[in-house]
Amino acid sequence: MSHPTSPATQTRLLCIGYAVIAAVALAATWSQNVAYFHSPTGLLTFWSDTKVNPASRSITVDIVLFFLAAAIFMVVEARKHAIPYVWAYLLGGALIAISVTFPLFLIARQLRVGPSETTRLGAVDATILAVLSVLTIAFVIWVDVA
C-alpha cells in the first residue's frame, strides 16, 4: 500500500522542482548570452538576430507572448496572495530570463498558498511530467551544448 506524501512534503518537492528549473534556465540561457555578448556584434544586434530566420522569429514571438501571459498571471497572483516584489520578478524576466524568474515567482507563490492549495497528481500526470522533464533537459543539453 502506498503512503501519500504530506501536503508540506508536496510543497517542498514542488519548490525544489521550480528551483532546479530556475537554476538550469540560468545556466543554459546565460552560457549562450555570455558567448553572444563576447562575439564581435555583441549586444547591439541581439534583437535583430532574434529575427534571423523563421525558426528564431517563431521562438522569439512564442517567448514574448508567454512572457505577457506570465506577467498577467504573476501580477494577478501576487495581488491575490500578497506576494511582494512582483515587478522585480518581471524586470528580472526581461533582463535575465523569464525562464529563471517565473519559477522563482512560483516558489514565492507556493510558499504563500502553502499546503492548502496542493493538488495531488495521479500516476499518469506524474509519469507524463517526469517524461516531459527528461525530454526537456535532453533538448536543453542538445541546444545549449551541441
TrEMBL record:
Membrane-spanning ranges: 55-76, 88-108, 128-145
* InterPro entries per record: DUF2834 (IPR021362)
The alphabetized UniProt keywords are: Membrane, Transmembrane, Transmembrane helix
**Looking at the record's lineage, which domain of life comes first?**
Bacteria
Asked whether the UniProt record includes Transmembrane among its keywords, one would answer yes
Name of the protein in its database record: DUF2834 domain-containing protein
This protein's species is: Mycobacterium dioxanotrophicus
